[in-house]
Amino acid sequence: QVQLVESGGGSVETGGSLRLSCVGSGIILSTSSVAWFRRPPGKQREWVATIYVGDEIYYGDVTKSRFTINRDDNKNTVYLQMNKLEPEDTGVYSCKAAYQYWGRGIQVTVSS
To answer: Can you give the pLDDT at residue 64?
Structure first.
């Protein structure tokens, strides 16, 4: 059974940083595309970033060059490093692997 578990969320002030982790079980993340999405309060889900097999990477406009996605194959984990956080970054962040498996999501709150 495939399971993705996010961690690393929380509350920070504007300008702060967080690193989210997405740990996979029942799936080898290095052989899958893994994407991060977020859902701001009261809004639709937004795509944040994707890392493909071979480490090709793409970012959504919402990141404004502040976020970095990478992975540690030894830990079967994909990370999202978020810097210079803004209140608009507040939301539930979820990872998605192999175009079909979702984590439960984790809350990120940025206060002004």
So the answer is: 85
